[in-house]
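pasting for ref
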Amino acid sequence: MNYELAKGIQTKMKKLALSIFVLFLFIASVTTSAKAEIDGSMLLQNCNEAVRYMQNKNAPSLNFSAVNFCLGYISGVNDLHTTFVRSVACFDPPVFCNPQAADIEKLVKIVVEFLKAHPEDLHFQGAVLTVSALKEAFPCTYNTSQK
């Protein structure tokens, strides 16, 4: 197989993988009732409850559905990105580079802080805002002197 053909196939695979990732982000943003997409306002509302839970697991009248939704949503977006970076290698460079030490509680707090800092963007999809928050918190750094 010649080099040009292999490079063309690799480029097409990366585009396909990126398209699949975007599709999964879209699917992740749809509620189970298919009512509407999860926007930043809804994500913030659920994740505020998750932060309240993380601060005091015995807090009165916790909404555990909201807590679980937030934890699952953010974990899902993060896991999907990690899966695509590691197995498909379609993001070259990756969108964000979170350290392995970043647990779900840290990710939730980062997303909540980002959403509170950008109230004008709360109408955007929750998955897009989650990726933006993680990209801002965990930018990838590269040695540009290497080729």
